[in-house]
Each structure stands twice: as structure tokens, then as C-alpha cells.
Amino acid sequence: MAAGVPPDALGRRVSCGTDYGTVRYVGSVSRTAGIWLGVEWDDPQRGKHDGSYEGTQYFKCRHPRGGSFIRPNKANFGVDFLTAVKDRYGLNDKQDVQYGAGNTVVFGTKTVEFIGMDSVAEQQRQVQLNKLVDISVRECAVSHAGQEEEIGRTCANMRHINLSKNLISSWETVIAIASQVQSLQTLNVSENRMRFPSTSTFISSAFSNLKILALNQTEITWTEVLLCAQGWPVLEELYLSSNNITVLERPDTVLQTLKLLDLSDNQLLDGDQLHLIAQLPRLEQLILRNTGISSIHFPDAGFGCKTKMFPSLKRLAINDNKISQWSSINELDKLPSLRALQCNNNPFMDTEKNPETLIQLIIAKISQLEVLNNCEILPAERRGAELDYRKIFGKDWLEAGGHWNPEKNKPSEEFLAAHPRYPALCLKYGAPEEGELKGQQPLTLKNQLLTLTIKCPEKPEQKPVEKKLPESMTIQKVKGLLYRLLKIPGSELKLSYESSKLEGKEVELDNDLKPLQFYSIESGDCVLVRW
């Protein structure tokens, strides 16, 4: 092998300036002198060809212009882990400038020589390295572990290591580093395109305490994940974004302690792939952003029932996908533990132009949701959303065979498929009656607006306010308006009204579901607000 070229150069990761690649060929090239490295670049824009030169194929590339030849002296094959740590934290020999040249210290114009200064400096470096708990050597060209056991002797207290975007070529190198760190809890080896075991091998104890592992952009497959996971007995968080994972398999005996799984930016074959990981018993958070899924379905549970899949799942992210049908949102109500959902940038959201109505529909369809797109859902907001949903689809419910009388209430399967929560909302708030639904009229006509005076009799400092309200507006919505207008909690309000036709008499507005017109309120009347 030529000078400067490691004996194991083939398959090694290298960098050249800011570009990263993998060595696919070492040797001569026709009609040129000396040794060349054939490199397949991570960024095809850096390449020139597919590994062939003047009709001879020297190596193969995935991209037709992803490869090129470089001289060995242009390639950086990297450094060992400890060298990178010392460089990053200023603890190597070159940076001990406080001791001047050799074993001397300069005081003014005098140079004083200290015997044994090298060993003192080394001891101080050892002490400082042993204090390091959280280490980051991101982009430090780490390619190998270095001398055996040296990491364990030097950095005994490490718990968290960031090894992302280095020159690590194989999972064996990661094991060689991690096996020397007894209490390793967090490891990030993202952005290292490396080789993983393809068959079941010796299970290392290197990761026996590992809780968090990031393998983003490493080109790992799900099959390789399951093979390696045999050595992750207590892993709780696994990040696998941007790995071209398309097909999943059941993790029957591994990943049983997992609480968070990030599969974002992997184009999954279809939504049914999720069924294969649905039995992970402790999984609380699943990130599926930009995975190409177009539907979600839990076939083991019917309308209004809970699925046995994902029993512990509390937080789900399905934003930036291709979900176009509301039926997938209905399905999410089957998840027994779901509390938080992110679902922005899906086609189904384009079916409703009003963003507030869109949010209300999602809230009403998923009964246990507490956080939607990172916004907390307040109890009053849920109540309002569910009441509106019940009213908006009340006419459809009646036409589909729904009835306020339980003996006559037989809505069609089609209606229940589209609105599986509707029966539960009827139980919660009462079934809508025909008279209530007939009150739904356009709100823009001036003769339907009531001019009312709003007074707070127990708060004289609050000046009366005049408002125009639709006569079909429910008491619940009036309270919501007053909550914003008067800056008080809507749930605590007690409303009544006075009318010139009812001298000295107050009428309580005591049913949140009824519209203003139910109480025969007219323009000029006064609404009294107490809390």
C-alpha cells in the first residue's frame, strides 16, 4: 500500500475539505502515475463520474455522477477518539502554552526551568479529562477508537457522547469506543454513513446502560436496527430519521423498553407498516413526520371502541404527510392513551377553509386530546368544539336515522363511520332536537341581529357595553364572547336578562345549549353578567 494510505482504506470514510465520501477503490488508473483513491461522495454534486474512466469501471456509485478520483494526500482518514477530545477541549500537548518551550516558564525576561514539568502537565490533562461528563466531538474527523482501554482510563466519567458527522465507517468502531465507557447513557452517531451487522453476531455489553441513541442519516435499515437492538437492553429513546427505511418488522424480543421512536423523513411503504410496531408496550411518543403515509387504520376496534395497538402512546406526530381523509383522524380516537397530536400540513386540512373550525373538528373527533399542534386545549374550548360539532352535523344525524328518542335512534352505518364520536356526544350533551337545528340560519341578515346592553351589576367599575349578537347564538358562545370581552373565565359566568316587557323581573339564561331566541330576548334588552 502506498505511503499515507491505511491498509484498510477500502470502505473507509474520508473527508476532503468540507466534503465527505467513502473510499471505493485504491490503486492505479490507466495512463496516470501513482496511486489514486476512488471516492463515492455523499453529495453527488462533488463527483464527476460513476466510477469509470476511459472505458474502465474502477468502482460503482449509486449516482451516475457521484464519484471521482483523488490523490491520497488530499484525503483525511481521521483521528482516534481521544485525540479529537483533547483537540476539542484544548487538552493536548500543542495547547499547553502556559509552560512555554520545553520545561520552562518565562517570568518577565527570566526563563526558569522546571524539572518534570511534562509529567505534571500530563497529570493535569488526565484530571481534566476525567472530569468530562458530556462530550461533543461533532465534526472532529473521528474514525477509530485508538489504543485499547485508553478511553476508559482517561475519560472514566463520560455519560453523554456526541459523535455525529465524523468519519466512522462501521458499527464495530462505535462498539470499540462505547465498550470503554462504563456508564454511557446518551450516544449520538448521526450523519456517519457506516456499515452495520447483517447477521446476528456477538452481543456486546457496550450499551448495557444506554438510554438515548441517535442514528439519524446513517443509512441503517430496520432489519439492522433489530439486530443491533439485541445489545440495547434498557434503551428508551431511538432517533432514526432520514435513513430510507421503507419496511418495518415486528420487534418481538427487542426494543421492549422503548418510550420514544423517531422515524421521520423515512418514506414508509404504507400506513399498515405501523401495525408491525404497534405492540411496543412502553412506547409513549412516535414521530412520523414526512413518512409519506396517506392513511391510519386500527382494524381490531370498531366505532367508539379502543384499539389494543400502541397501548401506551401519548404523543403522536404525523405532520407533513399525505393524509387526505378525515377517517384517519377518527381512527386516532381509538388510541387509548393519546394526549398530544401534531398533524399540520396534511391534505385533509385543506377541506376546511376556516382554521378555527378545522381545529374544532379535530378536537371534537378525538376525545382525550389535551394538546393539538403544540397548543393546549382548554376545557372550555373542548366543550365549545363538541357542542358545535353536535349541532353542525345534527341535521345529517337526523336524516341518517338519528332520533332524540332512544327507541327510535338508529343512525346508519355510513353516518357512524363518518362521525363515530357522535353517539358519545349525544350522551354527553343530549341529542339535538329538530327545533334546535331549525334555528340554524344565516347570521349575516340584519334582522337576525339583536342589539343588547351588557351590564355587570356587581362590578360598578365595569361600564355597560352595547353589542350586536345573532339571535341564533347559543348561551355557551355568548359566554365565550364575554370571557374575551371582560377578561373573565367563561365557565364561571352566570347570565340573566331584563326586559322592559318584564318589569323588575330577571330571566336566567341557564341552558348553555339554547340560542338567545329560545329565551325571547329582543333588541334593547339588557344582559346581566355575574361571576
Automatic annotation (TrEMBL):
Residues in the signal sequence: none
Protein name: Tubulin-specific chaperone E
Family note: Belongs to the TBCE family.
Subunit-level organization: Supercomplex made of cofactors A to E. Cofactors A and D function by capturing and stabilizing tubulin in a quasi-native conformation. Cofactor E binds to the cofactor D-tubulin complex; interaction with cofactor C then causes the release of tubulin polypeptides that are committed to the native state. Cofactors B and E can form a heterodimer which binds to alpha-tubulin and enhances their ability to dissociate tubulin heterodimers. Interacts with TBCD.
SMART domains assigned to the protein according to its UniProt record, in alphabetical order: CAP_GLY
Function (record text): Tubulin-folding protein; involved in the second step of the tubulin folding pathway and in the regulation of tubulin heterodimer dissociation. Required for correct organization of microtubule cytoskeleton and mitotic splindle, and maintenance of the neuronal microtubule network.
Keyword Ion transport tagged: no
Subcellular location: Cytoplasm, Cytoskeleton
GO process annotations (BP): cytoskeleton organization
Superkingdom of this protein's organism: Eukaryota
Gene Ontology annotations for the cellular component aspect, listed alphabetically: cytoskeleton
InterPro entries per the UniProt record, alphabetical: CAP-Gly_dom_sf (IPR036859), CAP-Gly_domain (IPR000938), LRR_dom_sf (IPR032675), Ubiquitin-like_dom (IPR000626), Ubiquitin-like_domsf (IPR029071), Ubl_TBCE (IPR044079)
CAP-Gly domain sequence ranges: 27-71
Organism lineage: Eukaryota, Metazoa, Chordata, Craniata, Vertebrata
Keyword field: Acetylation, Chaperone, Cytoplasm, Cytoskeleton, Leucine-rich repeat, Phosphoprotein, Repeat
Ubiquitin-like domain span: 450-529
